[in-house]
Specification:
The complex is a heterodimer of chains A (346) and B (179). Chain A is of the alpha+beta class and 346 residues long. Helix content of chain A is 50%, strand content 23%. In chain A, helix 10 runs antiparallel to helix 11. The longest helix of chain A is centred in the last third of the chain and has 45 residues. Chain B is of the alpha/beta class. Helices cover 45% and strands 21% of the residues of chain B. In chain B, strands 4-3-2-5-6-1-7 form a seven-stranded parallel beta sheet, sandwiched between helices. Classes of the chains: A alpha+beta (346), B alpha/beta (179). At the A-B interface, helix 10 and helix 11 of A face helix 3, helix 4 and helix 6 of B.
Chain lengths: 346, 179
C-alpha cells in the first residue's frame, strides 16, 4: 500500500524498482522503460538513456518520447495501436520493431516487447517495455540482402568453392553459363566443369590459391550439355574470421561469344588480305608489266588483249569477293547483335 | 634465280616470288624441270595456256613435254575452247572437281613418265576460290603427287598468304624456295 505522502505513481515507481533487478535497471544494452495508463514514464533505465540520448527528466511521458524519438508518424501510430490493444485487455504482450531517432539524430533499429503487468495489486495498469538494439543485426541482414542481390544480378558467374573443391554458392549467372541450377550444383565438385586434360592443372591452381596466390586467366570449361566454353576466371581465397582460408571465390565470365567474334574478325581479315589485298596488288603489277610491254616495238597486240581480259576478269572477281565478304561479315555481326540484344532483354 | 636441281631435290616444293616476277619464275621453273627430263602438267589460273605456250616456245622449252590444265581461258576470255592433245580447258578456276578430273586424265597420259605437276599459282586461285577450298584442294593435290610418286611445284606470290594458311601449306610441302 502506498504511504500517506506517496502518490500512486510514486508507489508504482518504487514497486517497479523493487521488482526489476538492479542489473536490468543499470543495463547498458537492454532498454527498459515502464509507463502507466496515463502514459507517464515511471522507469527509464540506463540503456534507454544511452540509446536515445535523453534522460528520464527529458522524456517524462510517452507523448514526449514519441515526439522526440520516433522519426515518422508510422511508428507513433503503431505504438498507439499497441496501447489501445492493451486497454481492451485482449493482449498480454506485444512484439514489434521500430526505428528510433536519438538526440544526435542517429537512427537505430529497436525490437520491442511490451508486457502488461496486471500482477500489481494496484488499480493502475502498468506497461513494461523492453527494447533490444538490433541495428547491427538489421544492417548485417540488409547488407546480406544487398550482397545477395549484387551477386545474383551479376552477369558473371560468382561461385564459392570449399578448400576441398566442392561448390558452396552458385549464382544465377552460373546457372546460365553452366546450365546447372543451384540445387544441382551445391556440394558438387567444381572440377566437373573442367575437361579431363586440364583437371591436374586446375587442382594445382586451386592449391596455389589456397596458399594465397590468386589466379586470373582464361580456361576451357564444360557446361551441363558438355559444350566447351572459353571462360575468363579469377580465383582468390576467402578468409574466415580468424584469418584462416575457408574457401575460394571464383568469378567467371563466359568469353565464348567474344572469342568467336574475335576469331570471325581474324578470319575475315585473313581472307580479305588473301583474296582482296594481295590479288589486287598482283593485278596492279601485271597491268604495269603489260603497259611496259606495249612500249616495246614488237609487242603482240593480240596477246596483250588476252592478258588484259584476264586481268579484268580477275579484277571483277575481286570486286565480287569484296561484296561477298563484306556482306557475310555484316550479316554475322547483325546476327550477333540481335542475339546480344535478346540476351540483354532477358 | 632458282638453283638448278633444287626444284626436284625434294618431292613437293613451294616457290615464292615477288608478284611481278611470277611470270618469269614460271618460265624458269618449266625450263629447268623439262631440262631434267620431267614432263610438266601445268595447272594455270594465272596466264592462259596460249600465252604460256608462246612464252615457252620463245624460251626454247620443249612443248611436247608440257601439258596444260588451263582454268582461265574459257572463263576470262568468254570462250568455249575444246580440249586438245596437250590442253584441258576448265570452265571455271573455281571448279576444283573439274580440275581434279583433268589432272587424273593428264596423269594417265603420262603414266610411265617422270612427271612434275606445277600449280601457277596459289595466289591467283585465291581470287576465284575461298582459302578453305584452296587448302582442301592443295591437300588433295599434294596427296595425289605423293601417292603417284611424282614431283610438284607450287607457286605463290611472296607475302600474299596469311600466316595461318602458310602454316598449313608448310605441312603439305617438303621445301620452300624464295626467289
Amino acid at each position: 500500500m502506498p504511504g500517506k505522502e506517496e502518490s500512486p505513481h510514486t508507489s508504482d515507481s518504487l514497486l517497479l524498482q523493487a521488482v526489476l533487478p538492479q542489473a536490468l535497471q543499470n543495463s547498458d544494452e537492454l532498454i527498459i522503460f515502464c509507463t502507466d495508463d496515463s502514459g507517464k514514464i515511471l522507469l527509464w533505465n540506463r540503456a534507454a538513456e544511452i540509446v536515445t540520448g535523453y534522460s528520464h527528466a527529458e522524456v517524462p511521458d510517452l507523448k514526449t518520447l514519441l515526439w522526440v524519438a520516433y522519426p515518422d508518424a508510422t511508428y507513433r501510430e503503431i505504438v498507439s495501436t499497441v496501447r489501445a490493444s492493451f486497454r481492451k485487455k485482449d493482449t498480454k504482450s506485444i512484439h514489434y520493431d521500430t526505428l528510433l531517432r536519438s538526440r544526435t539524430d542517429q537512427i537505430r533499429y529497436i525490437s520491442w516487447i511490451i508486457e502488461r503487468i496486471p500482477e500489481t495489486d494496484h488499480n493502475q495498469q502498468l506497461y513494461l517495455t523492453i527494447g533490444t538494439d538490433v541495428t547491427q543485426a538489421r544492417q548485417n541482414e540488409n547488407d546480406a540482402i544487398l550482397l545477395n542481390e549484387i551477386v545474383n544480378s551479376s552477369r558473371d558467374a560468382i561461385v564459392g568453392i570449399s578448400p576441398e573443391g566442392s561448390i558452396l554458392t552458385w549464382n544465377h549467372a552460373a546457372e546460365d553459363i553452366f546450365g546447372y541450377d543451384t540445387t544441382e550444383s551445391i556440394g558438387e565438385l567444381f572440377s566437373r566443369h573442367i575437361p579431363d586434360e586440364k583437371i591436374d592443372f586446375f587442382a594445382s591452381t586451386l592449391g596455389d590459391v589456397l596458399n594465397g596466390k590468386d589466379f586470373r586467366g582464361t580456361i576451357a570449361c564444360l557446361s551441363k550439355s558438355k559444350e566447351v566454353l572459353t571462360v575468363s576466371i579469377a580465383l582468390s581465397s576467402i578468409s574466415g574470421e580468424s584469418g584462416e582460408v575457408v574457401g575460394i571465390s571464383a568469378i567467371i565470365r563466359d568469353m565464348t561469344r567474344e572469342l568467336t567474334i574475335q576469331q570471325a574478325m581474324r578470319d575475315y581479315i585473313s581472307e580479305a588480305t588473301m583474296r582482296l589485298s594481295h590479288p589486287a596488288k598482283l593485278i596492279q603489277v601485271n597491268i604495269a608489266s603489260l603497259i611496259e610491254r606495249t612500249r616495246e616495238e614488237d609487242f603482240d597486240k593480240g596477246d596483250i588483249l588476252i592478258e588484259l581480259q584476264v586481268q579484268q576478269k580477275a579484277l571483277s572477281e575481286i570486286i565480287h569477293n569484296l561484296r561477298e565478304l563484306s556482306q557475310a561479315m555484316i550479316s554475322y555481326f547483325r546476327e550477333n547483335e540481335r542475339e546480344m540484344t535478346s540476351d540483354t532483354m532477358q | 634465280m632458282i638453283n638448278p636441281g633444287s626444284l626436284t631435290a625434294e618431292q613437293i616444293v613451294l616457290v615464292q616470288s615477288e608478284a611481278h616476277l611470277l611470270k618469269n619464275v614460271n618460265e624458269e621453273v618449266v625450263q629447268q624441270i623439262t631440262g631434267e627430263g620431267f614432263h610438266v602438267i601445268m595447272i594455270t589460273s594465272n596466264q592462259p595456256s596460249v600465252i604460256l605456250s608462246k612464252m615457252y616456245a620463245r624460251a626454247n622449252i620443249n612443248l611436247e613435254k608440257v601439258y596444260f590444265i588451263d582454268t582461265i581461258s574459257n572463263y576470262a576470255l568468254g570462250k568455249n575452247e575444246q580440249d586438245t592433245e596437250d590442253t584441258d580447258f576448265i570452265s571455271n578456276p573455281g571448279d576444283l572437281t573439274e580440275i581434279g578430273i583433268a589432272l587424273t586424265k593428264a596423269l594417265d597420259k603420262y603414266a610411265d613418265k617422270e612427271v612434275c605437276i606445277v600449280l601457277d599459282s596459289i595466289s591467283t586461285m585465291l581470287i576465284y576460290v575461298s582459302s578453305a577450298k584452296v587448302s582442301k584442294f592443295l591437300h588433295y593435290l599434294t596427296n595425289k603427287i605423293r601417292l603417284a610418286d611424282h614431283h610438284g611445284v607450287l607457286f605463290a606470290a611472296k607475302n600474299g598468304l596469311d600466316p595461318g594458311f602458310m602454316l598449313q601449306l608448310t605441312t603439305f610441302v617438303d621445301d620452300i624456295i624464295e626467289d
